[in-house]
Amino acid sequence: MQIKQQVDKLSDHKARSLLLQMLLHTEMLRSGNYSDEDYMTSMKKFYQAVLTFDKETPPIQGGNIHIVFSDSSAGSLKQAIKKLNMSDRVITIPINFSIGPLWQLHQIEGLEKRRDWLFEHINLEDEFIFDYIPRIEESWMKLQALPEQCKIFIWGCENAHEQAGIAYAVYLLREKNNQVYIGLDQEHQQSLTRQDILHTGELAPEQWMEYIKNVENYLLLSIDERQKWIELWVTLAQSKDVFLRTWKEGRLTPVSEHYLDEMIIAKARELQKGKEFMKSTRLIGEVIGHLDQPIGDLFIEYRLRTLAFLGVFELKGVPRAMRFYSVRLKSNE
């Protein structure tokens, strides 16, 4: 049987990963958090994954390749490419590099440790956790399948998330001979948009269109420049106890995960009226609105929960997602 032949080809890691995901989905069904229909849909996906896991990813055909690091960036960029009637393709590496461990993230072991950290600290949908490693592995396969004649553009603004992402992408491309370009620096951002852009996820399709029209003006990496990016990633991938990064004075800087706690408390003091509870989403939104880095609301929510567990805040509701609870600063009375 074909299914038996495919199972025999599975590596120990792949077999354990699939078994774990199937058991987790079964546990969700048993606990009532999954419908029978959703469960069967997931089982069919696992079945298909076994049948097709060893199929080679076909080489990407067409024009230039664009690499971005979030679904929001990819969505707007794809719309821009479509409007320009271009054959360019977009590859998304769905990792928020500003938070969480980056240790050996170019290997399966590193991905597993990061996934476990996210599961233990960040309020994420179960489906996100289950699909986390397969989505990143898919981006790896697409990068390895790139034909040598295509040009590669790695997009990132001056922030910790995308600068670390650029280093990661250049490392993954270390054995490819393609021409690799980097954008966007502050000069290009301001000349084309006349405003500061914190991250590429803020760009509308019309702004992306302007960038794509000017791609030849971006930095073509030399061999030495590629090596510097590779060395940066190797350094990042060696750290085991860094869970937050920021961009300071033009440098990627590791900081304590408590780095934003005082800001969260200060914004709570500004918003709190007497002893009333405030929606956690309101407080988190206020903090996000005053950040100059795309750290993300989920990390702020994690720190808010942590401060509550430490007795700084009181909670009302169930903190399984930010929309389900309210907070107030704990009174000293």
From TrEMBL:
- Outline the extent of the DUF1835 domain: 65-181
DUF3658 domain: residues covered:
221-325
Q: What is the designated name of this protein?
A: DUF1835 domain-containing protein
Record's InterPro entries?
DUF1835, DUF3658
Which Pfam family would be a valid example here?
Answer: DUF1835
